[in-house]
Amino acid sequence: MDYLECLRLTHAALEPRTYCEIGCWYGPSLAVSRSPTIAIDPKPHIAFQIEAPTRIYKMTSDEFFEQYDITELFGEPIDFGFVDGMHLVEFALRDFINMERNAHPGGVIAIDDILPADMAYTGRKQGQGAWTGDVYRLLPILAEYRPDLRIDVYDVEIKGFCLVSNLDPDSRVLEEAMAEIEQAIEQGRWKFETLEQLRDALGPKPAEALAGDLAELARRRESAESAAAAE
Ligand SMILES: C[S@@+](CC[C@H](N)C(=O)[O-])C[C@H]1O[C@@H](n2cnc3c(N)ncnc32)[C@H](O)[C@@H]1O
After folding, report:
1. 40 close to ligand 1 (CB < 6 Angstrom)
2. Could you tell me the residue range of the domain that residue 104 belongs to?
3. From 86, 125, 135, mutation site for ligand 1 pocket: most ligand atoms within 8 A of C-beta
4. Which tens digits make up the pLDDT trace of 58-84?
């Protein structure tokens, strides 16, 4: 299974009311969406047939979240987000924070590039071939600062797949700790030397576990929303 199949399964199971994608490139992942979609990329060059009603903002994700209120643009918060923009941990962290702040509490945020198949992919400068950058460092950061989040990592070819749920749009823990986290990133924290260390820390599940987990997430969202509607 590859990450596109994981995205397909996630869209099918969650049937999100809104989908936000950071980093759409030439469109393979965007083409999977069937929901009202907002995509953000400073250099999009879409070569795929896009089925969903889609707006593409040609700018960096930081510029987008500074200029726009995505909840206002959609008319409701994000149900499903995909973080796949700049492959550096501090960018992925800001993307996660901005997505979560604008998400439904029952929403889900997928993060790409968190389980590189080779440490050669993890450099902070893009070289030749596959490049995940050091996005994987986001997961130990979230685990340390936000133990309230549910993080599921799947063993998917080349770069893994990850779903973060149990979101709290009101949490400001990460924003408040941002200066401290950025300093620790610069000092080399949350870095692994070997794939074995990285995999031990992230504890990936087999890709086959994704379908069952998605069914459970969809059920949990449904019951949380029914409970909220009954209040
Ligand atoms: C790996 S590609 C995305 C691939 C796409 N999601 C897919 O699965 O086919 C990464 C994209 O992130 C974009 N990008 C780079 N820096 C960005 C930023 N600061 N904000 C948003 N997107 C960014 C790049 O232009 C590139 O198109």
Report:
1. yes
2. 3-226
3. 86
4. 999 999 999 999 999 999 999 999 999
In a domain, 231, yes or no: no
Position 127 confidence tier, pLDDT thresholds 50, 70, 90 = confident
How far is ligand 1, taken at its centre, from the CA of residue 15, in Å?
23
Whether the predicted model's global pTM rises above the 0.90 cut? yes
Q: Domain with 216 in it: what CATH number?
A: 3.40.50.150
Q: What total number of domains does the chain contain?
A: 1
Average pLDDT for the chain: 97
Return the ligand 1 atom nearest residue 40 CA: 21
- DSSP string computed for the chain: --HHHHHHHHHHHH--S-EEEE--TTSTTGGG--S-EEEE-SS----S---S-EEEE-S-HHHHHHH--HHHHHSS-EEEEEE-SS-SHHHHHHHHHHHHHTEEEEEEEEEESSS-SSGGGG-SS--SS---TTGGGHHHHHHHH-TTSEEEEEE-TTT-EEEEES--TT--HHHHTHHHHHHHHHTTTT--SSHHHHHHHH-PEEGGGHHHHHHHHHHHHHHHHHHHHH-
